[in-house]
Amino acid sequence: MEQVKRYAFEGEVIEVPVYWDDRLQRYAEDYRDYIQQPVYTPGGRLILLTIEDACPYADPADCPGGIDCGACRHYHQFPGSQLGVCSNEKRRRPGKQRGAAGTRKEEPT
Ligand code: SF4
């Protein structure tokens, strides 16, 4: 049976596989390459490692010119994990953005 850790973000439960790390002598999360193989929440939010290079849509919090997702206001890190969720609408899975069929429409500006 596969072991997983569960995190919740905006009412969505995300399961991350864990494995026994002989070197650390404890369970560790299975950090895959989230850039090459993107993983989304059921609502279409990107799941990323905190150390991923910032994308062009980054909004650096305390670190102007921030270099990773962890320094971006759109990033919500799971406590006790190196993983988090990007809440930037521009990075949401295609077809899941606001205004897409079956989703909420974008507010006029
Ligand atoms: S958290 Fe989202 S918007 Fe911010 S740098 Fe990462 S991918 Fe880009």
What does this protein structure show overall?
The structure is a single chain. This protein is mainly β. The protein has one domain (3-91). It is built from no helices and seven strands. It has strands at residues 3-9, 12-21, 26-29, 39-40, 46-49, 75-77, 83-86. The strands form two sheets. A four-stranded antiparallel sheet has the order 4-5-7-6, with no helix packed on it. Strands 1-2-3 form a three-stranded antiparallel sheet, with no helix packed on it. Iron/sulfur cluster binds next to loops. Iron/sulfur cluster (SF4) binds next to loops.
Strand content: 25-35%
Q: Measured on Cα atoms, how large is the radius of gyration?
A: 15 Å
Q: Catalogue the unreliable spans.
A: 101-109
C-alpha end-to-end distance: 50 Å
Order of helices and strands: EEEEEEE
Domains, number: 1
Approximately how much helix is present in the residues? under 10%
Strand order of the largest sheet: 4-5-7-6
Q: Report the bound ligands by name, code or SMILES.
A: iron/sulfur cluster
Average pLDDT confidence is 82
Number of strand elements: 7
